[in-house]
Amino acid sequence: MIEAAAARLDGHARRTPLLSSPFLDEIAGRRVLVKAECLQHTGSFKFRGAWAAISGLPPGVRARGVLAYSSGNHAQGVALAARMHGVPAVIIMPADAPRLKIDNTRALGAEVILYDRAGESREEIGAALEAERGLTLIKPYDAAETIAGQGSVGLEIAEQAAEEGVETADVLVCCGGGGLTSGVALALEARAPGLRARPAEPEGFDDTARSLAAGRILRNKAMAGGLCDAIVTPQPGELTFPIMARLCGPGLVVTEEEALRAMALAFLRLKIVLEPGGAVALAAALFRPDRIAGEAVIAVASGGNVDPDTFRLALDRLAPAR
Amino acid sequence: MIEAAAARLDGHARRTPLLSSPFLDEIAGRRVLVKAECLQHTGSFKFRGAWAAISGLPPGVRARGVLAYSSGNHAQGVALAARMHGVPAVIIMPADAPRLKIDNTRALGAEVILYDRAGESREEIGAALEAERGLTLIKPYDAAETIAGQGSVGLEIAEQAAEEGVETADVLVCCGGGGLTSGVALALEARAPGLRARPAEPEGFDDTARSLAAGRILRNKAMAGGLCDAIVTPQPGELTFPIMARLCGPGLVVTEEEALRAMALAFLRLKIVLEPGGAVALAAALFRPDRIAGEAVIAVASGGNVDPDTFRLALDRLAPAR
After folding, report:
1. pLDDT in tens, B102-134
2. Do B308 and A322 touch (CB under 8 A)?
3. Strand ranges in B21-94 using DSSP code E only, listed in sequence order
4. CB-based contact B271 A273, cutoff 8 Å
């Protein structure tokens, strides 16, 4: 399924570069290779899963349109992938979502339906739309085609790591529901068995690390919040967790402060823009050297949709030039 | 020479991606494709010319080491390319250069010699080192091998534009001494004759635009200064100008304010970090639509070595989220 998804993505998704800097190698004490998925269309890997899911629908079903619940990266990925397919997209967002995200999603051609988090159920609104218009729900992570699309990141890492002469390494993946992590893990199992996927999460939202350690799905205490909101989910997915449990190494957990420092170093040394949730894998690569084995580490920089004020917080972590 | 330089660069320089965003297309009124050379090693295209020049030296000459005058991107490009060749590099910098640039150049393994701009001549210091140690001077733009190395950007653009279905377009290039612009122009002449290179410069330092219009080399009134310092030179090069005069379309000139706005849009829409001088071509693509013909425009984003304070100025150009 991953290979088939990658074939459908070919020519539509970007093959993102694997970046590096001697300055980052020095901090980490080993080679650091960064898969810059922030450079993907709509600024995050989510475009891949959205494209894979939409392109995999039967044409008659696809033509009726798609539906997603999201205020973030998944919304933009679904909106653009639907527009590129010439089919309608309806995105259901909380009315208190940031104006910029609502505007961006509309600008990508989607119909945005706002709901009141306190008094309305997005699932009821969505179910009514599915019934009335025949829309298909595109899930953000717990669906086979979505996982397959994100897995194309893993196929590219397998090829690019081989080009760099790296055969054995941990591959750290920013992890929310586990769609990207499980897809990458499956791709690496088949194409680069010396590379091992490991989830990276922010402190307080380490449901996957704890679930992997416990051998069963555990939930976060807090359901949302924090700077790394892009990758916060209540718990690992029902489909993604068994894949991660079978294939992934132990989870890594970093603080928000470390995510901001990783964003600052990505700005300074790689010239890429990361959001806090998209920087946790790089933060783990740089600041958890004792938890990682091997001469190289690969970090997936999963997204860059950050507002200027949060980015200023990251820049504040850089010492002044003099 | 460009093809030979590209062959030597293969596996050492990065093939940088050609990025795009529907939001930028809307601003420009046409497709905008951005060659993200800020993602090159050391954060600018200068690594290519430095590698081409150093790798093109006879081995016995190369082994004695190389020399450059620079406080900026050329210094870092030469330092890293020399280190990757295992040969010494001496960089002569003004003593009042920013501490970060001095430290970065040293961290890349170069010996940095500081001189007093007021009382000393860098050329005399350099000539003495050439004589004493047998070092070879690596010029920043007015040398055939340097131009050939920068021309590899043009070969990649020719291929990547064809992949995007773009056969006719202006290719806007951030222009200082003209090494990158002339190299790109030569590569496009051979490989993509429907693509035309055009220099982009900041207001007040439009020596190349005026020289092209006059048909002879003209100088800037100011010799240095401004936010776009990375691409400020006194005049076009003796080697680069005749190439540009034969092949380039008219120059484009933008304000510093427009360069900062282009940096902000590159942050928001492309997730790349640009320095002001590296953003002037994108600024021209976005804000000079009436001076450009065709359904698409390609802008070379030549570098991203910007300090946090200047980047904050760019972020200030973005409206708040609400």
Report:
1. 889 999 999 999 999 888 888 899 999 999 999
2. no
3. 31-36, 66-69, 89-94
4. yes
